[in-house]
Amino acid sequence: MADIDSAGAERVAEELRRLGRKAVAVYGDVGDRADALRMMQAAARDLGEVDLLVNNAGIARLGPLVSFPEADWRRSSG
User: What is the pTM of this model?
Assistant: First the structure.
């Protein structure tokens, strides 16, 4: 479980472990390439070979779409 909320990530990982699943909590921002690579390395190191990753991250930008700076548009829409 990777999140910018490390306490929240640990709570979810702990719940998964209680359910008998392997889980690791890692702090990271998926919008930051170095963090994303570090999260994948931690998963592989702590859990073994990774067969599937689910990216369920979101970024919210509030305001009129036409006023978004180009960088914000690219970051929020991938």
Answer: 0.65
